[in-house]
Amino acid sequence: MWIPTENEKYGVVIASFRGTAPHALSLEIGETVQILEKCDGWYRGFSLKSPNIKGIFPSSYVHLKNANVKNKGQFESIIPTEDSVISEMTATLREWGAMWKQLYVKNEGDLFHRLWHIMNEILDLRRQVLVGHLTCDRMKDIKRHITARLDWGNEQLGLDLVPRKEYAMADPDDISITELYRLMEHRHRKKDTPAAASIHHLYVQMKSLMCSNLGEELEVFFALYDSRDSRMVSERFFVKLNRNGLPRSPEKSERQCTLFTDLSSSDIRKDIYITVHIIRIGRMGAGEKKNISNVQYRRPFGCAVVSIADLLHGEPREDLVLKVYMCNTESEWYQIQDSIIKKLNARYNLTSANTGLSVSLQLLHGDIEQIRREYSALFTRGVTVTRKLGFSDIIMPGDMRNDLYITVEKGEFEKGGKSVPRNVEITMYILDTEGHILKEYISLGSGELSLSEYHSFVLYHNNSPRWSELLKLPVPVDQFRGSHIRFEFRHCSTKEKGEKKLFGYSFVPLMQEDGRTLPDGTHELIVHKYEENIPLQDPRYLKLPFSKVNLPGNNQALKTSKESFWMTSFLCSTKLTQNGDMLDLLKWRAQPQKITDCLLKLKEIDGSEIVKFLQDTLDTLFGILDENPQKYGLKVFDCLVHIINLLQDSKFEHFKPVMDTYIESHFAGALAYRDLIKVLKWYVDRIIEAERQEHIQEVLKAQEYIFKYIIQSRSLFSITTGGQNEEEFNCCIQELFMSVRFFLSRESKGYAALTQTQMVYLSTFPSIYTELLRLFDIRIVANLIRDTLGSLPTITHVDDSLEAVKLQCIARSVESELYLNPSSRCILLPVVLHHLHMHLQEQKDLVMCARILSSIFCLIKKDSTEASISEEVDMIVESLLDVLLKTILEITNRPQPVGATLRLPYQDVTGEFVACLLSLLRQMTDKHYQQLLENFTTKEKLRDFLLQTFTVFRILIRPEMFPKDWTVMRLVTNNVIITTVLYLSDALRKNFLADNFDYKVWDSYFYLAVIFINQQCLQLETFTPSKRKKILEKYGDMRVMMGCEIFSMWQNLGEHKLNFIPAMIGPFLEVTLVPQPDLRNVMIPIFHDMMDWEQRRSGNFKQVEAKLIDKLDSLMSEGKGDETYRELFSSIIPLFGPYPSLLKKIERETWRESGVSLIATVTRLMERLLDYRDCMKMGEVDGKKIGCTVSMLNFYKTELNKEEMYIRYIHKLYDLHIKAQDYTEAAYTLMLYDELLEWSDRPLREFLSYPIQMEWQRKEFLRLTIIQNFDRGKCWENGIVMCRKLAEQYENDYDYRNLSKMRMMEATLYDKIMDQQRLEPEFFRVGFYGKKFPFFLRNKEFVCRGHDYERLEAFQQRMLTEFPHAIAMQHANQPDETIFQAEAQYLQIYALTPISDSPVLQREDIPDNIKSFYKVNDILKFRYDRPFHKGTKDKENEFKSLWVERTTLTLVQRLPGICRWFEVEKRETVEMSPLDNAIEVLENKNQQLRSLITQCQSQQMQNINPFTMCLNGVIDAAVNGGVARYQEAFFVKDYILNHPEDGEKITRLKDLTLEQAQILEYGLAVHEKVVPQDMRPLHKRLVDQFFVMKSSLGIQDFPAYARASPVHFTSGSPRVCRNSISMSMSPDGTRITTRRSPLTYPAVNRYSSSSLSSQASAEVSNITGQSESSDEVFNMQPSPSTSSLSSTHSASPNITSSAPSSARASPLLPEKPKHSRENSCLSPRERPCSVIYPNPSEPPQRMLAHQISDNSLPKSDPSLSSQEKAVNPTPSSWSLDTGKEARTMMECGKLTSPPIPPRPAHSGSPSRNVRSVSPSSAARSPQKGSVQSFTPSPTECHSAGLVSNSPVLSGSYSSGISSLSRCSVSETSGSEAQSGEQTLTTSYSSGSEELFRKENKTPPPYSVYERALRRPVPVPHSLSIPISSDPPALPPKPQQARPTKLENINMKSEPPMSRPRPLPRKVSQL
To answer: Model pTM greater than 0.85?
Structure first.
């Protein structure tokens, strides 16, 4: 039977339990469980990690722990009774554990390992605490370490800051909010701003001395040296080294390192150096032989110096090597360190090149005890402490020092009969009065033991030696009296004996007869001659004078002596004094007459001397006071004040405890209080009259200790007398305070000294409270203080500085023990509140006001039940609540200084005032709120109070109010806010509804509630489970509580709800997005009310819809909304579904349909916005971002019609394009905004990055930006259109300056079209299938415009990178419904061919670099082909059944546009028969051959290998049989009989076959001219194979006209005319044939055929270095219709690299898709061309002369045959429009003139109308000589109608024409046409075998200038060029249409169709 447990409530799992029994609870080791019931060895309970899951588990798996139970019963909770630090440590380590693993996953290795070490360290410390065997100090130290590490880990992991009180977590309910704030602020400051140390220490370690020639022992002295004052700062650190340069005591490592201690901040600066002096011990000269002398001398060796400047930055210096220098003359040794520091190079040099001293340096900060703790390793080794010379800045009472420092300075000695100067050595001893040597009291430096005697180093041959060697004499105090120092001077001989001969001595006593020690300073001592008969052991010499300063006048011999010795002494002692005045004062009884003088001189004595004898001095003063108070009272009082104020100095402030101890234990002046009070009152009474207040102020500064003496004296008197004279004492104190109140109440009125005195008194006044409480009742003291503070004048009449001091006094009063007592607090609180109220009203001294308020509220805790607390809260509310609200509003609305960073809460007083307000509100009860609201006399005042309160609450909720890790403080704040709001909402309902409705108050209330719910710190879903559980247990879900309050208040509004529609729709919608089901259940019914009331008012939801849309967009832009929000919103959308009560309500409404429509619109917007937000999270710009932005843009335009949002997304899209460098798309995007603007003067507001400007200014700026982007995107044609529009506007406005600039810009764009190369992009079809794609892509197909040089493989890889989870489909078939509905992502990608509908492409006289633009721009339709076999497949010839399925895709918009891809709107599929396929293949192949021949002839082809391979692939099609297969398939009798409907097509195929043969023959002729020598064998083979091919095709020979020039070119591209007969001529004449030319059919298909491959490809590879087949070499894409003919080889990368376009083909084909458009890249598209407009008024001869004289003009028009030039001039235009064609047909007897290809109307490009000049006209010209001398250029343009006598032709068309035309086209006459016909009557009389024989005699096939013309050719009048050099400025429109093609060779000619002549259009001159 299960029994509830009594004591077994809490435990820890000690072994993992896998529950298999029914209702078993699985547990992991380390989990904590709460136990509810027990039964037979089993427990029932739950894990605290998952409290909702309950189960059973064995009791043996749980270790029970003690715990306290709260709310015993069903909802009981447990609190472990273990140490709070242990509990926090355990919970924190559990939380860290999960996050620690995530660090490894996120690859944050550094923090991962650091946290791991910290966690192990905390676990070790936890074990020590749990053992329980630690002392209290050790336990405290461990807890400090634990909490420090917990805080560090929380900070690193971004967890909350934990408020602590004595290392334990502070519960906000147990302390006041102000105290909580102080704890948080203290920890925040501790984390951010470490306190600066005032004491520093320098650690120095000597590692080694590196020197190659030591051989002698060394002494190394380290010291700190001040180069600014040229003095030593510290003692010396002494290290002895042996002959090898190692320490003499290597076992004592501490001898090698030291710590220079007690350095003040002034000692740590750049001009402080570490000096190292090295003394060697050995022979006199370093180079002397060893056998000269065995006596050892101390001799200078070297010096090293290093600055501590590098240590000031905190970084230690390891292994620093110092150079060792030696002075050039030993006499300079004493100042060698200065010479090195000042870099006086002439005075020193290196001892040796390889001598160096290795040291390590580190600067440490803090007091010595802190250093001992933090660097314990240093002190465990016993590091030597080297002290500072003199006392440190702070003298501690316990410091005991008695050090006398002696510096052996210099000497002056006579030669003593020597011929050379002496080698002087000093020996020093310390002796007592009897002449005995005091042992071991001479220290050369720390680190070595003290010595009994000292030997100086010897300076060679120097009678005036200067040593400057510092010694320390630590002589005990008791041995100072009578002791003296003796200096013995010896000459050190360098002879063999090496004797040291004594020649003189000096001495100096340590203490004078009057008890004073040797004065500090330099002393000149007398050098007494040594007499051998008087031994120095006899101290009789002490009777002799020792110094030359005080010699008696009769001793002239010593005065005139030249021999002297100088030494400097400095005493650092806490026991001895050198001051005689101090000794006289202490011995005042011996000389009473000097008492007055001694008291006056006390103020002149150094403070360090006074504090040495502090107790003796005080005893002396009070002894003198008792002796004669009338005479000495005032003087003793002044001396006492001086000593007290001396202890205020920071240097001596640590002696205050010494004085306190003296007062408590040694002071015995029982009667002193009378005199002290009397004198003090006398000074206070003189304050107002005194002119000089300085001394009085000194007295008032000392009043704390004066009152201590007064109170102690009165206590001693009361003890002695039994409390006599009590009333007298009380009256004295009252009178004293009356005097004080009187002088405090006086106003300064410009008397600054009085104000200063008042400030001094107030600053020290609180320090006497404690002393007064020793003798007076607490209420009496409280009344004294209240009256004193109340006597101060009001704030309006007081100086600001006095007010600040007054508040400081009040603050100290509130912080004193007096305020802790409720009985005294109620006396002091009114006056404190009075002063606070005045200051807060004036907004003065806010820092001190905040401090006072914090101290007041620190005493008021949450659960305080004292009656006095309630009364105090009443007073505070009445006095301060209103002004406190205003203060917070004021300080939070202050503008931030320019450039100021965000202020932290502890950097100003905002946080403290907020904490005070929260403390006050938390203490307010129902009674306080009721009383507060009743005190408002009018509703206006109540209204203002509510508005202030709500505004302040909104400020408190701001994220920047507290640091982000102050979650505890935020939760407390929110708890107080919601409690207060619940109280105030009743007042809102009662006072501001019905007739008194106030919109502003209600709006402020709702706004506060909404932002309260949306706070980040209340979103519990983002917290860890443990943190969420703690918050819910302590505060509950405050969002739901506030939501319920919103709903309740909304229901009370009634008809006033209309005032909040639609304003509150957005805020309430934001609340519904909070993922809290209970909150949503409360909030969603409000929407029904809103819709209902809006329907009643206006009959629709337009306002509701607008607000919803705006709010949703702003929410997404703020980053809100994710998958969770999407799901939540989708459940909100069906307002009528999840909530049956709402459904019933709405079903009864009449507006159900409109409501559903509204929600549907919002749903679609939400989906797009969430997609947009998800896409914008990505780092780089990609298609998803752009596509999603386009989706949003279109949605706002089409569905919502919100122009402002539409424009915003236009610019967002523009920014994305600019970032992705899609400049063309960026221009199209801006055009959307441009379309919305007009050329008006309407002013536009500032919007986005646009300033305030007129509408036309913004439109002008937009258009200029659009032109710039078109230019950057190389879309110059569109830029020209925009230039024209802008120029037209400028012209209308007569803005000729800008018009000129615009025309020049337009001309620049024309030049770029002709001069610069452009790459043709590829197009790809992309299908996005599956539900995992974003909404705007899902189950849709798009056509994408690829980047430059982007092939299919690269594009596919890019798409898979953008969609890493997508699966690439490997077929081109349309997917089925399964793929559409799959929960995955599928991508279907293949290349497409653009279908251009531009009429420009039909024009034959337009250069390729112009046509190339229209091939790939402004494209609406695309196609791709899929080959398949219909019927039975013929294995011998698969072409018979090879069909092609052609799919055409139509887009919603043309490409390019506002983005690189558009959705497919329509798809159409047709099937092509095998015959149609064959025709298309041949057309494409012929077109390709023409293009390659043109490139080769125009010398645009740098490498002829592609040309060679193409010829080889067609002539020797060894793979699939080539054209022969088409013959077998379609030319056989069976096929013709079975397919009579294909007759015309079969004829067409035959013509194409013949045409291909002609092109090949001409191509071979061109190839022979350019083929290199090493490829000649291949060329010969191609010629042979070509004859074989002709034979196989049944072609015996070509007619003359066909052989002459089978290829027609226009402007550098092959000329192709469908259903027309080509015109050919030979030098012998012209023969017209009725046979249709194979060149008359255009090749419109963009696919290229690779059906004509050859077995010779291997041979070509051997010759050209390539191993690829001919097809692939120049990137021809195999058409799907000829896949069986395609080559199996792949293209060479180095040959195909010039092609910018990627291949296109059906994805079903095994070959890599390629496209024929790649071949166009093999010929440059930028050939400069010009347009010539001939003037009809000029004769032909003049035009010819003009042309010949100007070589920059074109010489011919390759686009026109002779008939066209003579008979049918073509209209021309400057515009880009294309005119209609006119149809004509001509026949002349039996000889029918060749058909003229169609000539579409010319557009306005300057390269459209190039005319040729006949050489026959040149023969008739008067300038015949000049014509004959003209040599045809291989770069001229040639007419296709003029041929030579050989089919093997040389030359190429022109590519160098660059000048603009300045003439106009004229019409030709009929007579000119007749003459043109006669010119064409020639005959062909040459065989095909002459192809390779007469190449050098053959003129260029396209040149009108022939080397051997048999018959002259007349020049048409229309092509004549005038001589005039000033052509018309504007060319007019052409006036005549051009003839068209022949329909059929047997059809009769039709009359030409006339077309209305277009009027000339005015075009602005560029």
So the answer is: no
